[in-house]
Amino acid sequence: MPTREDLKELSLLGTSESRLPATPDEARLETFGNQRVGRRYWITLNCPEFSSLCPVTGQPDSARLVIRYVPGERCVETKSLKFYLASFRNQPAFNEEIVNRILDDLVEALSPVEMIVRGDFAPRGGIQLTTEATFPDVAGVTP
């Protein structure tokens, strides 16, 4: 198998790095080249153990995140995604903001053709909240 130069830029994959970033701003989403540019295909990433903090109570929130995207020229490296998502553990933010922040950060890192980030948050006070954010944003369209 020929050596791919773009893989030399990955700093987490293949290392025993265990220190998680303290915040999403500190985290680095690493990417690698899409070997099938021009082919429309979906990548689905299931993250069943996501956690963050309620900005009012400080209590932990947990969720199942699903990230789906049609890659452009770049794909996200999953170990860096794991570290990025873990950085939200101590991040106080509302669930809606978290899902939109993840979408914005991934779109900036990847420039995908299309992306959906969905967070199914555990019930709080008897209400289960789901937030879904999409790119490209189609303003004015209601389900």
Overall CATH class: Alpha Beta
SSE order:
EEEEHHEE
The CATH topology turns out to be GTP Cyclohydrolase I, domain 2
- Helical element count? 2
CATH superfamily: GTP cyclohydrolase I, C-terminal domain/NADPH-dependent 7-cyano-7-deazaguanine reductase, N-terminal domain
Q: Label the structural class.
A: alpha+beta
| Gap between N and C termini | 46 Å
- Rounded average pLDDT: 90
Q: Could you say which overall geometry the principal axes of the C-alpha atoms support?
A: globular
Name the helicity range: 10-25%
Number of domains: 1
CATH architecture: 2-Layer Sandwich
Could you tell me the number of beta strands?
Answer: 6
- Based on CA atoms alone, the radius of gyration comes out at 16 Å
Main sheet specs: 4 strands, antiparallel
Strand content: 25-35%
Structural commentary:
- With 143 residues, this protein is of the alpha+beta class.
- It has a single domain (42-143), classed as GTP Cyclohydrolase I, domain 2 (2-Layer Sandwich).
- The chain has 2 helices and 6 strands.
- It has helices spanning 78-86, 95-110, and strands at residues 31-33, 43-53, 60-70, 74-76, 114-121, 130-135.
- The radius of gyration is 16 Å and the shape is globular.
